[in-house]
Structures are given as C-alpha cells and as structure tokens.
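Collaborator request, handled under Task 6.
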Amino acid sequence: MEPGRRVRVGRIVGLHGVQGEVKLESWTEPRLQIFRYQPWLLTAPGVEREMSGIRGRAQGKGIVASLPGIADRDQAATLIGCEITVSRDVFPPAAPGEFYWFDLEGLEVVTTEAVSLGKVSHLFSTGANDVMVVKDGEKERLVPFVQGPYVQSVDFDAGRIVVDWDPEF
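Structure tokens returned to the collaborator:
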C-alpha cells in the first residue's frame, strides 16, 4: 500500500436546490460514511480542488452535500462530474482478517500450485459473499473472496493473494 495513494470514494452527480448543494454518488459502505473521510480532492478535466468541512445528509434515495465556498447553483454546476478522492491515510486500519477492497485491487492472484490467474481488477458483493474479478489480459475469472475455502492468504508485502481455485474455471 503506497503512501500518499488516493482512493475514489464517490462523485458529484447533480444539483440540489439553489444554494449550491450537490447530489452525490457514494461508494462507501454505509454510503453516508463518505463524509467521515476528508479532505476531499475533487477532480475532473480542468478541475482539481481540495475541500474540507463538507457536510451532508440523506435526501430521499440519494445523498446531498454542502461544500464550503460553494454558495449558489452556478458555482455547484461547475463541479458536476467531479470524482471524489481521499488519501488512503484517512481510513482506519482494517480489523484482523478484514480488508479494504481498494487495497486488494491490483494484487496478483495465484493458485496454491503457484499458477498465476492474473490481477484483481475490482470486487463486488453478491449478498452471499464478495467476489474478486481477476483479469489476466485474455481471460476474466470470478473468484469468491471467502477466506478458508477459496482465499488461502493475502500478502500485501509480496503483492499476492493465494487461492484454492482451478485455473481452468
């Protein structure tokens, strides 16, 4: 996990009202947790702006945020489409045996027989368990992220996840 790394936690997707509030898409769990991770770096083509002191709330099925220094709809409109990233350092350490998905992305996945399956592209939840999307260029594999039966070990120093998985599957 490289120091200074930035993690995408959401993006600005629209406007709310006339006083500069914006609608957010949050990729944190739970979704309102996005406000605990600050400062935000807002980025889009031609825009890069760091902000702290953002406040927000649930509004219907969405999330609304008040951004310091943004007082009207026209100012807020310039930020639609901005990705919200934060420093990796703002996240508390994961509990033993737990992992942040963004820390697993990019790790090499190998079988217990040392056959490389590729690298973790991303993860998603099925409700029953999390699933790693492992890509090796030509092939994409969906490997359940279940410690014990499938995931044998995660080694950040080596950049590797060892899985009990058939390479032909």
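The cover message to the collaborator said: "The mean pLDDT is 94. Residues 73-77 form the longest helix (5 residues). Please let us know whether this matches your experimental observations."
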